[in-house]
Design brief:
Low-confidence stretches: 1-13, 17-47
Number of domains: 2
Number of strands: 15
CATH topology of the largest domain: Nuclear Transport Factor 2, Chain: A
Mean pLDDT: 79
CATH class of the largest domain: Alpha Beta
Number of helices: 6
Radius of gyration: 19 Å
CATH architecture of the largest domain: Roll
Order of helices and strands: HEHHHHEHEEEEEEEEEEEEE
Largest sheet: 10 strands, mixed
Shape: globular
């Protein structure tokens, strides 16, 4: 354990928000190929009984394409003029999806349709998606667990616009990654002070604890380029930070990276800054 800690002290850790891109793009998808025989049943149970057929078919077809890592099949259900609130568009999705699926080739998607309404020829749907990827040798033993809530504008059977309302992603590695209790508000006002705590729940014993906190504005290029972080030796059982929201509204990612002898845990949560 001590040797591993010292080796990690000599280098930077890198993690990517490409995970979050897939959440944005596939927030309408349901269950992946691990449970193909149950896909139709899950789709029916997770869709409001009075939802239009157009919406139900869209969910099912995106699910089928995503389950096969079929990026062309997914993109056919997005308008060529697709945009989202983070600056993503139709053109830069393909590369990010392919990169992400190479890292996580098997994911389980479970989406619930929370609400929907019609505005002329537009359907507005709000969904909550849980995405789980179990550790495996193909992913360097990285585990993934995400919850994301989003709102889609669907025109003529294609997603034209998307807004991410809330999200949290948990990435773990190792045999015994730290279990964290994370405390961060989902929304703050411009200039407001806020606290960010990531507390290790298990006793540390003789383990050394390394970690860092990171806050960055959400931009389209962040989905494609990993962020480097320097891990520092922590003197307490977690991270305890006080931040201040910027003076302009926007969306930010706030992350905690914590490493101990049994593994590493990365938690990223969206923080909305409003007027």
């Amino acid at each position: 354990m001590t040797n591993m800690i010292f080796l990690l002290l000599k280098r930077q850790s890198r993690f990517s928000h490409a995970i979050l891109l897939t959440l944005c793009v596939l927030s309408c998808s349901l269950v992946n190929g691990w449970q193909r025989t149950q896909a139709a049943e899950v789709a029916q149970n997770n869709t409001s009984p009075n939802a239009p057929t157009e919406l139900k078919n869209l969910l099912t077809q995106i699910d089928a394409a995503a389950s096969k890592n079929d990026v062309k099949g997914v993109l056919q259900f997005y308008s060529p003029t697709f945009t989202n609130g983070d600056g993503l568009n139709y053109q830069n999705m393909e590369k990010a999806l392919l990169t992400f699926w190479q890292r996580y080739p098997k994911l389980q998607y479970t989406t619930q349709l929370q609400s929907w309404k019609s505005e002329g020829n537009t359907i507005i749907a709000e969904t909550v998606t849980n995405i789980t990827g179990l550790p495996s040798a193909n992913t360097n033993n990285l585990g993934l667990n995400t919850t994301i809530k989003s709102r889609q504008r669907i025109i003529s059977g294609r997603i034209a616009r998307q807004e991410i309302l809330s999200e949290r992603t948990l990435i773990t590695s190792g045999n015994k990654p730290p279990q964290l209790d994370v405390r961060l508000p989902e929304q703050v006002k411009i200039g407001q002070q806020y606290t960010f705590d990531a507390i290790v729940q298990e006793p540390l014993g003789d383990d050394l604890l390394l970690g860092t906190a990171l806050e960055e504005p959400i931009q389209a290029n962040k989905y494609l380029n990993p962020t480097s972080v320097d891990l520092q030796l922590l003197n307490s059982g977690g991270l305890f930070k006080i931040g201040r929201a910027p003076s302009t509204p926007g969306n930010h990612w706030v992350s905690a990276v914590i490493l101990r002898g049994g593994g590493m845990t990365v938690v990223t949560q969206r923080l909305q800054v409003v007027k």
